[in-house]
Amino acid sequence: MTWISIILSGVVTYFSRMAMIALIDREMLGTKVKEVLNYVPAAVFPSIIFPGVFFNDFGFFVEITDPKIYGAFVALVVGFYSRNVIATIVSGLLSYWFIIFFLLR
Amino acid sequence: MLSKSKIFLKGTTDVLPHMLSVVPFGIITGAIGVEFGFDPLLVYATSLIIFGGASQIIFMQLLSGGASSLVAITSVGVINSRHLLYGAVLSEYLEKLSFLKKLFISYFIVDQGFAESNNYLKKNNTEINLHYHVLGGGVTLWIFWQISTLSGIVLGSFIPEQLGLKFAIPLTFLAIVVNDIRKLDHVFVMLVSGFASLILFDAPFKSYIILSPILALISVFIMLRFKK
């Protein structure tokens, strides 16, 4: 790992953050594109969530009875009804811990 | 009209719940870098210069495994290209800023900050000075990220691995999108993205992280066509 490779990675990353904000004129985007952009969170975040829940550390599918699946399900239900970020995360973690520390002992 | 500092503070408090995953993830990132045998200064430099959790870990992992710099840099670029989408969404609220301010604020665009600001800006789009929310969230996430990666570098991975805190990462992102499952069209898009990520997980350069959103957005395009 050298300074040059870190700096180049930083430049690439910074460019990805800056390009659409500073270099692109919004007029250039058509109404259709703007409409599609409404779905960006729904399009991006599940691709982080699904592998995090359904794959283990080695990139293999977990069992259908995996504690992570229960934890994610609890978080989903709590999040849906509470509309609260912290309640969603904490309920998911607590139910996950309950399973791995008490039920699986 | 809300004052600038109030909006900034709102940005800060909106991202605070995410520290439950950001802090442990930061500690792990710092500790892993040192475990790989890299100079602590270089490990910290990735937090300052790249400033993107997953991409920092992959970057160090690839280089420690003997991959070429070109492969490592390409992976970082591919993983972080999702910021292009965030920028396209946020540009609506940032377009009136001066060029220099745009350049400055861009450095702070990260996943959780984008998600929280996007929610806030959509609801408060009549306010001015909305960019202070982006800044408040971004700066807060930056500070916590720097401190947590530094402590991971100095103290090592002091969070017991049995806690499985890695699981907090999908949970924070679940908390971000869970509200959208009230809307059927969003559920459809989420399922496309999620299943695509499972199928494409082994694609080179961790490209599933951008290929799945692209596939999902293409499905949006098709869906909107049928809706009309």
How is this fold's topology laid out?
The complex is a heterodimer of chains A (105) and B (228).
Chain A lengths: L2 H21 L7 H7 L2 H5 L1 H9 L12 H16 L2 H19 L2
Helix pairs in contact in A: 5-6
Chain B lengths: L3 H12 L3 H17 L4 H10 L3 H12 L4 H12 L1 H13 L4 H8 L4 H13 L7 H25 L12 H10 L6 H16 L8 H20 L1
Helix pairs in contact in B: 1-9, 2-4, 2-9, 2-10, 3-9, 4-5, 6-8, 8-9, 11-12
Give an overview of the whole structure.
The complex is a heterodimer of chains A (105) and B (228). Chain A folds into two domains: 27 residues; 65 residues, no CATH class. Helix content of chain A is 73%, strand content 0%. Chain A contains six helices and no strands. In chain A, helix 5 runs antiparallel to helix 6. The model of chain A has no long low-confidence stretch (mean pLDDT 93). Helices cover 74% and strands 0% of the residues of chain B. Chain B contains twelve helices and no strands. The chains are: A mainly alpha (105), B mainly alpha (228). At the A-B interface, helix 1, helix 2, helix 3, helix 4 and helix 5 of A face helix 3, helix 4, helix 5, helix 6 and helix 7 of B.
As an assembly, this protein is: heterodimer
The H/E string of chain B reads HHHHHHHHHHHH
| Outline of chain B | globular
Low-pLDDT runs of 5+ residues of chain A are: none
Average of per-residue pLDDT values of chain B: 94
- For the termini of chain A, the CA-CA separation is 42 Å
Q: How would a textbook summarize the main sheet of chain A?
A: none
Strand content of chain B: under 5%
DSSP helix fraction of chain A? over 70%
Q: Share of helix among residues of chain B? A: over 70%
Biggest protein-protein contact in the assembly: A-B, 66 and 92 residues
Total individual domains of chain A: 2
Q: What is the residue-averaged pLDDT of chain A? A: 93
End-to-end CA span of chain B: 37 Å
Strand-pairing-aware structural class of chain A: mainly alpha
Radius of gyration of chain A: 20 Å
What is the total domain count of chain B? 2
Compute the number of strand runs of chain A: 0
Q: Could you list the spans of chain B in which at least 5 consecutive residues all have pLDDT below 50? A: none
Annotation, overall tally of beta strands of chain B: 0
Rg of chain B (CA only): 18 Å
